[in-house]
Amino acid sequence: MKGLLVLLIFFLTMYAPIELSRVIVSWGLASEFIFELVFMWLFYGLAVFIISLIVQRRILIVQRHVKEKQGNEDRRNKMIKTVIRLQNDIVVVFDTDGEQIPEYQGQYEKVRASILRDAPPEAVFARWFNYDTDQETVSREGW
Has residue 7 been placed in a domain? Predict the structure, then answer.
């Protein structure tokens, strides 16, 4: 609402310099008020430029916010498929597309609760302690 009010004031004030310039020129007073006309349009042009920069910056901020919100929703929609606990107690988590999910990865003690809370029943829990080619699949409780 505030933005619409600013826009209305901007458009109403835009008409004033145009009308004033028209009156000065039509009355033949342009040569007497040339200094005033030049500065009026200079400041008016500068004001329009500054307002356009402010509006452009706000638009970019809103666009960035929308992208971040969309990215957060995309991350929340990822389903945990595989959880692997390594020998050094680092946890690596993959989604159904085989991509890592960074918000669930880290030290075992720090991420354990959130993983157990958010992982669906069909998620696979594994330990890879010896760095062999095969990992040991364990139950959710034994992980």
Answer: yes
Give the model's confidence band at 108: pLDDT under 50 very low, under 70 low, under 90 confident, else very high: very high
Name the band, by pLDDT with cuts 50, 70 and 90, for residue 4: confident
- Burial class of residue 125 (count of CB atoms within 10 Å of its CB; 0-12, 13-18, 19+): buried
Question: pLDDT digit string (tens) for 5-47?
Answer: 777 776 777 777 777 787 888 888 878 888 787 877 888 888 8
Torsion from C-alpha of 29, 31, 36, 37, nearest 10 degrees = 80
Q: Are residues 86 and 62 in the same domain?
A: no
Q: Assess whether 10 and 67 both reside in one domain.
A: yes
